[in-house]
Amino acid sequence: MLIEQASKHKWHLAALGELLIDFTPMGISEQGGVLFERNPGGAPANVLAVISKLGLSGVFIGKVGQDAFGEFLRDTLKQQGIDTRGLIMSKEANTTLAFVHLGESGERSFSFYRNPGADMLLNENELDDEILKNSAVFHFGSVSMTKEPARRATLKAAERAKALGKTISYDPNLRPPLWDSLEEARKIMSQGLPYADILKISEEELEFLTDHKDPETGSRLLYDKYNTPVILVTLGADGCFYRSGENSGHSPGFKMNPVDTTGAGDAFLGGFLYKFIKSGKPASELDEKELSKAVQFANAMGALTTTKRGAIPAVPTMDEAKKLVETQR
User: Fold this and answer.
1) DSSP 15-62
2) CB-based contacts of 227: which residues, under 8 Å, 6+ apart?
3) Which residues, 6+ apart, have CB-to-CB distance to 101 below 8 Å?
4) Strand 97-102 to strand 20-28: parallel, antiparallel, or no bridges (unpaired)?
5) pTM (2 decimals)?
6) Measuring CA to CA, how many Å separate 72 from each of 46, 48, 225?
7) What integer is the mean pLDDT of 286-300?
């Protein structure tokens, strides 16, 4: 059973990928210029921050610059209770910066300063095998697959985790500006799919990878091709469509007044992984009730995150999520 394995491990979750600065808009200066607030970001780190806040243990694998931003990010992880054993400080490149632009409803677009960014330079020789061996679940995304050598390191870590019998979570997080072309993005992002036991994918990413926007059809195609035990299609304010083998369902979203949707998908996934790890079961053995409850809790975590600026600073508490779930019963 997974939870028994987890108790033997040092960490419940190891996450590999980008750790960067999100500069989030927070008003206008007296001179009429946009003011930006420095927030810690990077999807894998956001997921770790969620499970850490909910009381589980996590370790980060990745690279930042040996600069003030990198030190801020390392300190932030430590403050969140995340183990930084796998974090490398690089003198070769600066920490990646992302400027977040917000639409009227809190929807985001990004400008990246990453040419190269330190996160792109993680090398497969720098992977700490002890982290993979001593973690119950391994999570990765596709941003670390946009450029070499981090692409090879990411896929190598997934391959190693699979060989060690770990549960693997994958988020094919599409950021078009980071890829040389959308054709390359589709090809490389798809290379992560065979490893996934738990796949978190947005409507847009589902359509991008399967040519089908309908969650029922798109998730069925992915299941048929990769035999993925759990597929979670996030639908923004409309909640989540989920599939486990032949069974599928929909969990409605929570009505919020969004301020900033940065990190909402990561908070959703962190919430789901928390419930999954606590279940003590392999992904393929979650029953309908467990799955729907986990998705509902994940929806609450994601929804609450949109009510504050930033990603890690906006992660809600267990009590806040539980209270929101109660409103839907």
Assistant:
1) EES--EEEEEEEEE-TTSPEEEEEEEE-HHHHHHHHHHHTT--EEEEE
2) none
3) 25, 108, 109, 110, 111
4) parallel
5) 0.94
6) 15, 17, 42
7) 96
Answer whether residue 3 shows pLDDT above 70.
no
Of the candidates 196, 282, 292, 208, the residue with the CA atom closest to the CA atom of residue 243:
292
CA 316 to chain centre: 16
Q: Which two tokens stand for residue 61?
A: 């694998």
H or E element, residue 87: strand 83-90
CB 171 within 8 A of CB 209: no
> Residue 326 and residue 125: Cα distance in Å, rounded?
47
291-295 long-range contacts, Cβ below 8 Å, gap at least 24?
A: 291/230, 291/242, 291/244, 291/247, 291/249, 292/242, 292/249, 292/251, 295/232, 295/239, 295/240, 295/242, 295/249, 295/251
Q: Render pLDDT for 84-115 as a digit per residue (tens, 0 to 9).
A: 999 999 999 999 999 988 777 767 678 889 98
- Cα separation, 97 vs 94, whole angstroms: 9
- The tokens describing 324, both together, are 């929101």
Q: Which CATH superfamily does the domain covering 2-318 fall into?
A: Ribokinase (3.40.1190.20)
Q: Which of 267, 269, 248 is nearest to 256 (CA)?
A: 267
DSSP 196-245: -SEEEEEHHHHHHHHS--SHHHHHHHHHHHH--SEEEEE-GGG-EEEEET
How far apart, in whole angstroms, are the C-alpha atoms of residue 7 and residue 134? 10
Using one digit for the tens of pLDDT, what is the confidence trace for 165-178? 999 999 999 999 89
Distances (CA, A) of 305 to 123, 157, 207, 265, 302: 32, 29, 25, 9, 5
DSSP state at residue 251 = E
Could you give the 3-state DSSP secondary structure of residue 309?
coil
Length of the chain counted residue by residue: 329
Tokens standing for residue 234: 């996030």
Domain chopping of the chain, boundaries: 2-318
